[in-house]
Write a structure and sequence with these properties.
It is built from eleven helices and six strands. The chain is α/β, with parallel strands linked by helices and 283 residues long. The protein has a domain at 83-279: Uracil-DNA glycosylase-like domain (Uracil-DNA Glycosylase, subunit E, 3-Layer(aba) Sandwich). Strand 5 (241-243) and strand 6 form a beta hairpin. The chain binds uracil (URA).
């Protein structure tokens, strides 16, 4: 059984409601009415007038005119200097590590510079035979202004100590010099973007030339990608490669070793290979 809704509803048109906000009825009134109808046996709602739901529209609607295809507007590339070219010019001009640090810290085309507290250039003995290159400063490094000082850095120190190397050593033979591909902490410790790495690369190459190490250790994927153009550290590790005529050992990043203790055995094998190379053992 169906019954039309009672009409008009009790509150319609009564003050105190201003005309523009006049409610037809409140929720409880409508609900009472609905319940009352259900009690009477109403099973579906109908309007005062019947609706022919099978009626066809008189004319099929004409298809809308196709908008003319115009080429999408491509935003013009931002005008301004090419960051990589600027970095190359600045890096090439640096005659010492101090000059390099000064010009790199003033390089303002890398967005990461704006969000970082510190410019983290390097630590250890620049005369060291061994240069370590990591990814980027984390929170601890950003606060301290030095690379690899957090938990991963402390593990790195212990790993290097296991083959007789330390960043504090005055003797170049026992010393290490440590830096990163990126001198500014990325937000949330995210991996630096390829474009960000590309604009740091001229500085990293000049850094290597000026420090002039005998052996370079690349910690993790980011420096391998930047300097060797290769990723897949678990495959790359343990095999000597070359950058600008210098032997390079890709190694597992200490942060990875903290999560994956079982990989320490491989890191140890790589450290022994580095030790053997420094001793001049035939490889
Ligand atoms: N991880 C890096 O790669 N570099 C640092 O300086 C610290 C953590």
């Amino acid at each position: 059984m169906a019954r039309p809704m009672p009409h008009p509803l009790p509150f319609a048109g009564k003050p105190p409601y201003p005309a523009a906000m006049e409610p037809v009825a409140d929720y409880w009134t409508l609900r009472d009415q609905l319940e009352w109808q259900v009690e009477l046996g109403v099973t579906e709602a109908i309007a005062d007038a019947p609706v022919d739901r099978y009626a066809q529209p008189d004319e099929p609607a004409a298809p809308a005119a196709r908008p003319r295809q115009t080429a999408p507007e491509v935003p013009a590339p931002p005008a301004g200097p090419d960051p990589v070219a600027v970095a190359q010019a600045l890096a090439a001009r640096a005659r010492s590590l101090d000059e390099l640090a000064e010009s790199q810290s003033g390089f303002d085309l890398c967005e990461l510079r704006r969000g970082a507290r510190s410019f983290v250039f390097a630590d250890g003995n620049p005369a060291a035979r061994v240069m370590v290159i990591g990814e980027a400063p984390g929170r601890d490094e950003d606060l301290a202004g030095r690379p690899f000082v957090g938990v991963a850095g402390q593990l790195l120190d212990r790993m290097l100590a296991a083959i007789g190397l330390s960043r504090g050593a005055a003797d170049a033979g026992q010393a290490v010099y440590i830096t990163n591909v990126m001198p500014w902490r990325p937000p949330g410790n995210r991996t630096p973007e390829p474009a960000e790495i590309a604009m740091m690369l001229p500085f990293v190459h000049r850094h290597i030339e000026l420090a002039d190490p005998e052996v370079i250790l690349l910690m993790g994927n980011t420096p391998c990608q930047a300097l060797l153009g290769k990723t897949g550290i678990t495959r790359l590790r343990g095999t000597w490669d070359e950058v600008a005529g210098r032997p390079v050992m890709p190694m597992l990043h200490p942060a990875y070793l903290l999560r994956m203790a079982s990989a320490k055995r491989e890191a140890w094998a790589d450290l022994l290979a580095v030790k053997a190379r420094l001793r001049g053992d035939a490889l």
